Amino acid sequence: MHAFQGKNDPKVCLEWERKVEHVFDCHNYSEEKKEDMNSVMRRRFVQSHYHRGLRRKLQSLRQGSMSVEDYYKEMEIVMIKANVEEDCEATMARFIGGLKK
Fold first, then answer.
1. Cα separations in angstroms, 51 against 21, 45, 60, 74
2. Contact 68, 99 (CB under 8 A)
3. What angle do CA 29, 48, 76 make, to 5 degrees?
4. Rounded to an integer, what distance in angstroms lies between the CA atom of residue 62 and that of residue 96?
5. Alpha carbon 82 to chain centroid distance?
6. What is the CA radius of gyration of the chain?
7. pLDDT by residue (tens digit) across 71-97?
8. pTM of model > 0.70
9. 29 is in which domain, residue-wise?
10. pLDDT at residue 25 in the model
11. What per-residue confidence (pLDDT) applies to 3?
12. How many structural domains compose the chain?
């Protein structure tokens, strides 16, 4: 497994978490074990203001000059990083609300 060397950088921590997730998938670790590890790492290295900033970014995200595809990808990335879990209807409403008029 890759050693974590990001000190207190939340972006480095999240990237490391993705790599570890891949290792866990390859070795068929249980979802419970994966979630426990993620929880410990996030509490220790990802500050709460980082998540608040991501949620603010998600709330204010608009298509602007992006293509519809790029806007959708950006929204998905921010939702994943912010650990937002919502039903499909809420996500669709968020997406449509940010489209150019």
1. 20, 12, 14, 16
2. yes
3. 65
4. 9
5. 4
6. 16
7. 999 999 999 888 898 999 999 999 999
8. no
9. 10-46
10. 85
11. 55
12. 2
Q: Is the separation of the CB atoms in 70 and 33 below 8 Å?
A: no
**Residues 28 and 53 occupy one common structural domain:** no
For residues 70 and 85, membership in a common domain is answered with yes
Other CB atoms within 10 Å distance of the CB of residue 13: 19
Report whether 16 contacts 38 (CB < 8 A): no
| Cα 28 to Cα 34: distance, rounded to the nearest angstrom | 10
**Could you tell me the two tokens for 55?**
């949620």
> Per the domain annotation, does 4 fall within a domain?
no
**What CA–CA distance (Å, rounded) separates 77 from 48?**
18
Positive or negative torsion for Cα 21, 23, 26, 27: negative
Asked if residue 99 lies in contact with residue 67, where contact means CB atoms within 8 angstroms, the answer is no
Q: Say yes or no: 40 and 80 in one domain.
A: no
